[in-house]
Amino acid sequence: MARNLFVGIPSSLSHDILTKEEEALFLRMQELRSPQFIEPLIRALQKSHLASWRGRVSQALTAIGEPVVPALISALSGPNADDAAFILSDIGDPRGLKPVIDQAIEGNVLLHHAIHLAGKVGGPQAEEFLRLVLIANKPFRFPRSLLHRDAQSWRRMITSEATTALDKISRRSQ
User: Fold this and answer.
1) Rounded to an integer, what distance in angstroms lies between the CA atom of residue 131 and that of residue 93?
2) 133 with 111: CB under 8 angstroms?
3) Using CA atoms, how far apart are residues 32 and 23, in angstroms rounded to an integer?
4) Taking the domains of the chain in order of start, what are their residue ranges?
5) CA dihedral of 124, 134, 95, 33, whole degrees rounded to 10
6) Fewest CB within 10 A of the end CB: N or C in the chain?
7) Model pTM greater than 0.85?
8) How far, in Å, are 81, 114, 146, 151 from residue 125 at the CA level?
């Protein structure tokens, strides 16, 4: 029965408002959390440029959890790297830390995702990265919504996020 659920993901993904049937499909996938949904959901993530679809696909992939991590790490090199990094940061699996950090340093994914994941995962690599963020002069990539802000405002925000993540790691290790 579960196998037939992902047949309901339309191939075009061209409409922004999901139908009741499509909403029910994604909710059912979230409930079942079956690894058999990984491949069709990753394809759906890659196909759609619409926020409503990407949001539902992200929720379903996050619900699946740990089994989806290798596919998301592979997706970091594709056009939906930000979505993959966001989902990896929500899942919080340590296997995603180095690939997300590498992509953030190269400017391929938003720095926020790497900071969030580092704060969740912790450990020496996460701490080293967060300290690098705090001292770096290199302007990492940031959301388009922040383009109207000056670099100083952006820097303060990133510094605050990195400091909060380091504090989180520190409290866990005590």
Assistant:
1) 20
2) yes
3) 14
4) 97-174
5) 130
6) C
7) no
8) 21, 12, 28, 27
